[in-house]
Design a protein that fits this description.
Largest sheet: 8 strands, antiparallel, barrel
Number of strands: 16
Distance between the termini: 36 Å
Radius of gyration: 25 Å
Low-confidence stretches: 1-7, 9-23
CATH class: Mainly Beta
Mean pLDDT: 89
Strand content: over 45%
Shape: elongated
Helix content: under 10%
Length: 242
Amino acid sequence: MKSTYVACCLFALGLMMATPAHAQESKWNIEGSVGWDIGLSGDFLAAGIGSINNVPVVIQTQSFGTVYGTGIQWQIGAGYTLDEKAEVRGDFTYQRSGADAVLIGKAGTSDLFGTFQDYEVWSLEAGYRRYFERRDKLRPYVGVTAGIADIPRISGVLAATQANLVGYALDLYDGTAAFVFSVNGGVLYRVTDRADLKLQLAFRHTSGLAQIDSLQDTSLANINDRSARWSMPIAIGFRFKF
């Protein structure tokens, strides 16, 4: 039995040594990048007029960018080459943005402020990329991706000291499995035969978050119904071909 095992190992080793070098070249590559997610549309809070604890309240529209600023995205992915110009790939993206106290409107005659939990996104996407002819060290490409993003629950606290409204807990969005879709384009800069620097710009859509009706009796129940958003991620990274 042992001699049979050794013979099989030697036979396999002989096959690998006899295989031409070019046949062992992998069609796989990996990428890692970091970038900024610039908000283009979508409201974290929509405008509304109502009352909380018998205090008249006016909410002004607040975009995701106003509440969370420009988020940082980290991405790692792998691609499989179909031919010289076509590639299918999968990408994993993580983003987390914290919020400061934000002026969101009025409660009576007092300024109304809100603080909110971090905006956190974990997404997994599949896509297709089309490369163009390399010009010197530069090779442009375009692509599309689609997938699912996991966005945890988002709650907040409201405060308007002169209106005696302090520490009012506000549940806005439940945990969401959002649909994400993007179109992107970029350029690779060749460093070596196997390594490239990458610069990419994309337009990305994220579907609306799951609403929580915690303001049902305040006439403010619709302030969380416009959360679907478009953003423009800009990323720089590194691509390595096996």
